[in-house]
């Protein structure tokens, strides 16, 4: 590895002058600085990142705490966050808690060790006690869809679509009750029912969990209660896949026995024709990164990010007006 001493020997300048030139410091003549930089380039000099971090007291490393990355939505957000951070010279390390407190504790201890410049975290990955501890961490931001966008509106347009198609049994596979989005989605679901003259009944909702099997169990509850055909708005595309798994096991057919709307518009949703609410993952990720970097680099320029409104992506999983024999849009 080429060192500063090697550049000094080849250029004929002292190590101190070479260090000044490479780090943009000191009162060097521009001609001298350029000569040193040219020699460093020819020798293939690469700065020691660990030494740079020690001098600046920055690691250029950001932590992202998620429940897991098995869920495609989390993986998509992580990818967008990593891409955005790289634009500003930062790197990402991902922690998965899997809902285990022992993992939470070890992650927090790691973060307190000065190894990271900041944290982005999902509240569903951490228990309440750990969240309180995390709030004391100076440079941290929460990764939350509900904090930057109108989740209730997104839920409303998803439910409204099923109602406009004339489906009689419209139900909701909800997020876990403690999920930040859950109450907003339920309010949007309830509002759409009210607008279309449908009575709200708590039996129309079954809470899912964080695993696909939880969504299967929720679908089973709803179908046992309401029968088929049934139209279901699922709180995520991941949960919608769980509903489809249950339908397959029961021999039920999509677009005949079950009609389905998801939430997220992950890449796999198009391959199965899933109608879904598009979440702007890139904008949400960029917003979180910019908020964090403003605390790390107060003098930097990290503009506010506008989150585009939700968009319903209509595919075949809900059926169509033609299937119901009447044009309810007129």
Q: Please state the overall shape, judged from the principal axes of the Cα atoms.
A: elongated
Helix content range of the residues, please? 40-55%
Strand content: 5-15%
Low-confidence stretches: 321-330
Query: Gyration radius, to the nearest Å?
Result: 26 Å
Oligomeric form of this entry?
A: single chain
N-end to C-end Cα span: 73 Å
Q: What is the N-to-C order of secondary-structure elements (H for helix, E for strand)?
A: HHHHEHEHEHEHHEHEHEHEHEHEH
- State the secondary-structure class: alpha/beta
Strand order of the largest sheet: 6-5-7-8-9-10
- Average pLDDT works out at 87
- Strand tally, please? 10
**Main beta sheet strand tally, sense and closure:** 6 strands, mixed
Number of helices: 15
Could you explain how this protein is built, in words?
With 330 residues, this protein is α/β, with parallel strands linked by helices. It has helices at 4-11, 15-23, 30-43, 49-56, 72-87, 101-111, 128-134, 145-148, 151-164, 182-195, 212-226, 237-250, 267-271, 281-296, 321-324, and strands at residues 61-66, 91-96, 118-121, 140-142, 170-174, 205-207, 230-234, 258-264, 275-278, 311-313. The protein has a six-stranded mixed beta sheet, with helices on both faces. Strand 5, helix 10 (182-195) and strand 6 form a beta-alpha-beta unit. The termini are far apart.
What is the topology?
Layout: H1 4-11, H2 15-23, H3 30-43, H4 49-56, E1 61-66, H5 72-87, E2 91-96, H6 101-111, E3 118-121, H7 128-134, E4 140-142, H8 145-148, H9 151-164, E5 170-174, H10 182-195, E6 205-207, H11 212-226, E7 230-234, H12 237-250, E8 258-264, H13 267-271, E9 275-278, H14 281-296, E10 311-313, H15 321-324
Parallel strand pairs: 1-2, 1-3, 3-4, 5-6, 5-7, 7-8, 8-9
Antiparallel strand pairs: 9-10
Helix pairs in contact: 1-2, 1-3, 2-3, 5-14, 9-10, 11-12
